[in-house]
Design brief:
Blueprint lengths: L15 H14 L5 E2 L11 H12 L12 H15 L8 E4 L2 H12 L5 E3 L7 H8 L3 E3 L13 H7 L4 E7 L11 H12 L5 E5 L15 H4 L7 E6 H4 L8 E4 L2 H12 L7 H12 L3 H22 L14 E2 L9 E2 L5 E2 L2 H12 L1 E2 L1 E2 L9 E4 L4 H16 L3
Parallel strand pairs: 1-12, 3-4, 3-5, 5-6, 6-7
Antiparallel strand pairs: 2-8, 7-8, 9-14, 10-11, 13-14
Helix pairs in contact: 2-11, 3-11, 4-5, 4-10, 6-7, 12-14
The structure holds pyridoxal-5'-phosphate (PLP).
Length: 401
């Protein structure tokens, strides 16, 4: 008999993005020019001041175990950032640093969830969110954010999803994968629902906050609804704003009781985030927002081109993503048809697979984000690749029979 894997892994699949990347690598190795719009990662470089700060920290001996919840310098920089950019005042005991925003989410859920607890995660969602909750034995509940409403979450849909067993509501604006944003007024409507459920923690994932292209500007849930302050955790990180995905630094602000529990969880798993990475993020946070303005403008321009191209493809619809760097086109009009290569397109997964095999364009199927039939395309890819990918996808759609 073979040694077993944990039962809790039964429900877990490898992330869809990883599967597509592996397939793309195989095609590349066979000599094909594969274009990947599958990964949600800025195609910009980390700010040089952050790199220089990391270099300096390493040379100056900042190479010992850092405090689990973050270096003094980074916690201060994070507190200043929350105050300056979000109007949120936190004490040192109310902020922590982790190995990426993903670990913040993981810490928060591990610190609070018991088996059979419910976690409300509006769909479409970032794929990792429900998988972490499910790994911990929780049930996930998914109010729908339909394309017809621009993928917005309505207060009614949120209210219906909350039960006495709900432990968390997890919100993410601007949203991965849809690009939906939520201005102050709409957020206030959601906060009114949340204020009726004092047993519920609320995680506001604001990692794309600086990528709002049009419509109302980003506001933090905790700023719009100060009455929720003792149960809102605001998640953020350096990955998207500063093009620092590989440095693995995320952070959060929230009630001291929750932050202390999350720090305990982290102290028994990874300990503190890399001291060098933390030094780099201190410099990045202090370096102003000029670079993100350039990135935002670039993503907006690419979004406009990609959405126009998508809307011109037969069988494809596309709501305008007002934020982040994704488009989430609907492909209901392509389902049931057959590709030029003979693949039956009976799902968004089948579409994505055939598109990769026949036109060498990698995207992620919507089922991975909890709403089908859709695709997620990242526009954080260079202009030439994006244009060529759109040409190939249009060709694929036109040839569907
Ligand atoms: N939240 C959302 C919505 C994301 O899309 C991501 C990354 O893709 C993260 C959080 C976490 O990013 P990181 O762990 O790199 O900070």
């Amino acid at each position: 008999m073979m040694p077993l894997l944990a039962g809790r892994l039964a429900a877990l699949e490898p992330p869809a993005t990883v599967g597509m990347s592996a397939r793309a690598r195989t095609l590349r190795a066979a000599g094909h020019r594969v274009i990947s719009l599958a990964i949600g990662e800025p195609d910009f470089d980390t700010p040089p001041i952050a790199v220089a700060a990391a270099h300096r920290a390493a040379l100056e001996g900042e190479t010992k175990y850092p405090p689990t919840d973050g270096t003094m310098a980074l916690k201060q920089a994070v507190r200043e950032k929350f105050a300056r950019e979000n109007g949120l005042t936190f004490s040192d005991a109310e902020v922590m640093v982790a190995n990426g925003g993903k670990q913040i989410l993981f810490n928060a859920l591990l610190a609070t969830l018991d088996p059979e607890d419910e976690v409300v995660i509006p769909a479409p969602y970032w794929a990792s969110t429900p998988l972490i909750a499910q790994m911990l034995g929780a049930r996930t509940v998914h109010p729908q954010c339909p394309e017809a409403l621009g993928f917005a979450l309505t207060p009614e849909a949120l209210a219906q999803a909350i039960t006495p067993r709900t432990r968390w509501v997890i919100l993410n604006f601007p949203n991965n994968p849809t690009g939906a944003t939520c201005g102050g007024e709409a957020l206030r409507g959601l906060a009114d629902v949340l204020s009726h459920h004092p047993h519920v923690w609320v995680l506001s994932d604001e990692i794309y906050e600086h990528l709002v292209h049009d419509g109302p500007p980003h506001v933090s849930l905790a700023a719009v609804a100060p009455e929720l302050r003792d149960r809102v955790l605001t998640l953020n990180g350096a990955s998207k704003t500063y093009a620092m995905t590989g440095w693995r630094v995320g952070y959060a602000g929230g009630p001291a009781r929750l932050i202390a529990a999350m720090t305990t969880v982290q102290s028994h798993s990874t300990s503190g985030a890399s001291s060098i990475g933390q030094a780099a993020v201190v410099a990045a946070l202090g370096g102003g927002l000029e670079r993100i303005a350039v990135m935002r403008e670039t993503y907006r321009r690419r979004r406009d081109r990609a959405v126009a191209a998508l809307r011109a493809m037969p069988g494809v619809t596309c709501a305008m993503p007002h934020g982040a760097f994704y488009a989430y086109p609907g492909i209901a009009g392509c389902i049931g048809r057959t590709s030029a290569g003979g693949a039956l397109i009976d799902s968004d997964a089948a579409f994505a697979r055939a598109l990769l095999d026949e036109q060498h364009v990698a995207v992620v199927h919507g089922a991975a984000f909890g709403m089908s039939p859709y695709l997620r395309l990242s526009v954080a890819s260079d202009d030439d690749s994006l244009s060529e990918a759109c040409i190939r996808m249009a060709r694929f759609c036109k040839r569907l029979r």
